[in-house]
Design goal:
The protein is an all-alpha fold. The protein contains three helices and no strands.
Length: 48
């Protein structure tokens, strides 16, 4: 059985669109292009 009072204690409202957008864009995420750039820079410095 679901205890609604207990579930309400765990509830956290979702972010507004603007707040969610800001939270997402402020994360420093590495994508595949960043990885390839770092690898190519590393191989260039090792070749010198």
């Amino acid at each position: 059985m679901i205890d609604f009072e207990e579930e309400l204690k765990k509830f956290h409202p979702s972010l507004e669109v603007e707040d969610a957008e800001e939270a997402i864009y402020n994360q420093d995420l590495t994508d595949m292009a960043d990885i390839f750039i770092k690898l190519s820079e590393k191989t260039k410095t090792e070749d010198e």
